[in-house]
Automatic annotation (TrEMBL), chains A, B:
<dbReference type="Pfam" id="PF12728">
    <property type="entry name" value="HTH_17"/>
</dbReference>
<dbReference type="InterPro" id="IPR041657">
    <property type="entry name" value="HTH_17"/>
</dbReference>
<dbReference type="InterPro" id="IPR009061">
    <property type="entry name" value="DNA-bd_dom_put_sf"/>
</dbReference>
<dbReference type="InterPro" id="IPR010093">
    <property type="entry name" value="SinI_DNA-bd"/>
</dbReference>
<dbReference type="InterPro" id="IPR048048">
    <property type="entry name" value="BldC-like"/>
</dbReference>
<protein>
    <submittedName>
        <fullName>Helix-turn-helix domain-containing protein</fullName>
    </submittedName>
</protein>
<dbReference type="GO" id="GO:0003677">
    <property type="term" value="F:DNA binding"/>
</dbReference>
<feature type="domain" description="Helix-turn-helix">
    <location>
        <begin position="7"/>
        <end position="56"/>
    </location>
</feature>
<feature type="region of interest" description="Disordered">
    <location>
        <begin position="58"/>
        <end position="88"/>
    </location>
</feature>
<feature type="compositionally biased region" description="Low complexity">
    <location>
        <begin position="72"/>
        <end position="88"/>
    </location>
</feature>
Length: 88, 88
DNA sequence: CCCCATTAGGGTAATTCGGGAA
DNA sequence: GGTGTCCGAATTACCCTAATGG
């Protein structure tokens, strides 16, 4: 099923994370986030991947104690998946 | 669905509370406030949650319960949003 | 074809992180 | 128990100009 592979621009991702578009570009350059390059060299990011990152991206299954239930995280799409997470 | 709240940087939250950014970081580490991490490891806080904390609406019960929990809710994480405990 | 907003790239300053000690 | 400050290191933000996208 479609994971919602809508492509987002660096500016969109930057607004979601409250960071500078340049920072998003740096993440892609560092391989922290999957990126698709246009023939011209510009980057595009997958909406599903960005969303997973925002939510805490976890492959951890965790339920809420209050509020509403939340379905499991979406399967990775075409990216290398959980390439790297947590490296400081 | 979307809370539609902006994300604040530790410095912003620190200025709101008149405390050190380091203190805000400790609150997040202690799970007293929800936090979203950037792929780089930096923290972002929800404007709505910070506002609620400033108003004092975050916790309606902070009486003596250090030894016997009553029903004060098991320390939700992000509050209105999906729970996600940061950890890396 | 031209127009305008956004993005890429490099470089430098400011902020944040993490742990430890006051 | 909680907060403010120190340190080194990493990450992020803003400066610029040129190219890409629509």
């Amino acid at each position: 099923m479609d994971t919602g592979d809508r492509l987002l621009t660096p500016g969109e991702v930057a607004a979601l994370f409250r960071v500078d578009p340049k920072t998003v570009t740096r993440w892609a350059a560092a391989g922290r986030i999957g990126s698709i390059r246009t023939p011209g060299g510009h980057r595009r990011f997958r909406e599903s991947e960005v969303r997973a990152l925002l939510e805490g991206e976890g492959m951890l299954d965790e339920v809420d104690d209050m509020g509403k239930p939340r379905n499991a995280g979406p399967a990775a799409s075409t990216g290398p998946g959980p390439a790297n997470a947590g490296m400081y």
